[in-house]
Amino acid sequence: MTAFGITAEEQVELDKALHDALDPLASAIRSRLSGLPEDRQWEGESVEVALSVLAAWKVVDTEVKRLTATAAGTAGTYGASYEQLGSVWGITRQGARKKWPEAVSRPGAPGASANRTVELCGGTAELTREPDSGGWRWTGVGADGTRGAAEADVRYATPEEAAAHAGAFLKGRLRVDGAAMRREADDFFGTEDRVGGEGPWGREGD
């Protein structure tokens, strides 16, 4: 296993950045715990002050774990194995699997497809994952018959991201239902004064 470290200079910069980010959070927590205004929030017993700083680090720790899991999942989407994730984190493959159980997709049954389908607003889009790049693309047909697809050089990191773009395309390709529009107009305006064509706005031959 290979654990990736940082230089002494990078460690100093990281510590400074973390403490700079922590100070406002610790102050806010201390103010809420003590009920004191900001200019007096650090008054009190030293142990209470220290505990408020610890509480702030707990918040940071939780957020770092969330961001770490997101990064592991993104790497898994691109095809990283648990062995690679463990190598980066300095743990075993089994340890990485236990730490991020959803990061790497399990292989499907022989012949099974990883492709997915999005059905929205009367249209359909297919999401496909490219074996070489591990990226996702989409192709779709809107309710009005318009065909669309991801740009030729675009690859999305996750199927959810591809689905969001496919969904935006489908929402913009709604089929105009003339009969429904006419019924709504009749309900609102009545039918006595309606004249002209059989299209959405009238009836032909009146």
Offer a few descriptive terms.
single chain; 206 residues; alpha+beta; four-stranded antiparallel beta sheet; 4 strands; 48% helix; 10% strand; flat
Rounded to the nearest angstrom, the radius of gyration is 29 Å
Structural category is alpha+beta
Helical fraction: 40-55%
Strand content: 5-15%
Q: Could you give the distance between the termini?
A: 82 Å
SSE sequence, one letter per element: HHHHEEEEHH
Q: Could you tell me the number of beta strands?
A: 4
Spans of at least 5 consecutive residues whose pLDDT stays below 50 are: 108-113, 197-206
Average of pLDDT: 78
Count of DSSP H/I helices? 6
Strand order of the largest sheet: 1-2-3-4
Name the shape in a single word: flat
Biggest sheet features: 4 strands, antiparallel
Descriptive notes:
With about 210 residues, the chain is of the alpha+beta class. It has a four-stranded antiparallel β-sheet, with helices on one face. Helix 3 crosses helix 4.
Chain-wise SSE layout:
Elements: H1 8-34, H2 46-77, H3 82-89, H4 93-99, E1 116-120, E2 123-129, E3 136-141, E4 147-149, H5 159-171, H6 178-189
Antiparallel strand pairs: 1-2, 2-3, 3-4
Summarize the structure.
By secondary structure, this protein is α+β, with helices and mostly antiparallel strands.
